[in-house]
User: Which sequence fits this backbone?
């Protein structure tokens, strides 16, 4: 599944359509597309794992899910689930979930939790974690899109390894300064991920994701589908502390 930095990277490639007129929207998706006819596309943004197409009184969110993809001025053999047509070209989405929402994105999404937005607020995220997620395993909480939007499984696994925290630790058992460090590490790694997306080297450059041994002590990693999120997790039990 694409993570926040991948969406941001792809969103930046769509900017040529900003300010252009949408002549028509198509696709087999169920969303009512009648409003998307001869209307100016004010802006294209991203929130977490969503693309945001912003119009004057509403916006459209597009989520790629597990198998989604996007093509500009190019088509696959299968039908697009959602497509925007312009005099200048077209954007085609495949296997996506699309939603039309009235109002502005910032009234609907909390920009303070997006790991790639300048509005990100580490103190807010820390407080949310401590007050609402105390009894959750940190491995589940860190990928919850209400805690930190844009975190996917690679960012989750790498940030927990780099912060030396075992994902099975409960949030309430982790010292505050370690949580602060984890939030900071997640943000830094998201930027690294974004830079690597441009060279497609995210998986090769990962320290433990998709690997068998710890790069520091060569210990065999614990590789297991774990937590409520049921995502494949890589842990070095020597480097990552299980807080109790
Ligand atoms: Zn290790």
Assistant:
């Amino acid at each position: 599944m694409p993570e926040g930095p991948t969406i941001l990277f792809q969103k930046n490639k769509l900017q040529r359509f900003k300010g252009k007129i949408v002549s028509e929207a198509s696709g087999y998706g169920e969303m009512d597309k009648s409003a998307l006819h001869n209307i100016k596309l004010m802006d294209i943004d991203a929130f977490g794992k969503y693309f945001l197409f912003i119009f004057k009184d509403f916006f459209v969110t597009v989520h790629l899910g597990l198998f989604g993809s996007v093509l500009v001025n190019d088509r696959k053999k299968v039908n697009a689930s959602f497509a925007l047509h312009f005099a200048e070209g077209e954007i085609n989405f495949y296997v996506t979930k699309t939603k039309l929402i009235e109002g502005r994105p910032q009234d609907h999404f909390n920009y303070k939790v997006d790991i790639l937005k300048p509005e990100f607020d580490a103190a807010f995220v820390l407080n949310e974690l401590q007050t609402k997620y105390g009894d959750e395993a940190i491995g589940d909480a860190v990928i919850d899109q209400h805690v930190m939007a844009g975190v996917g499984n690679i960012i989750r696994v790498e940030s927990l390894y780099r912060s030396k925290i075992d994902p099975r630790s409960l949030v309430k058992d982790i010292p505050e300064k370690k949580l602060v460090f984890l939030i900071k590490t997640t943000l830094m790694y998201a930027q690294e991920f974004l830079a690597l997306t441009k060279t497609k080297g995210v998986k090769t450059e990962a320290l433990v994701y998709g690997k068998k041994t710890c790069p520091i002590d060569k210990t065999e990693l614990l590789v297991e589908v774990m937590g409520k999120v049921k995502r494949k997790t890589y842990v070095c039990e020597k480097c990552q502390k299980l807080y109790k």
Remarks:
- The chain has two domains: 4-107, 111-235.
- Residues 214, 216-217, 219, 236, 238-239 surround zinc ion (CB under 6 Å).
- The domain at 4-107 is CATH 3.20.190.10 (N-terminal domain of MutM-like DNA repair proteins).
- The chain is about 25% helix and 25% strand.
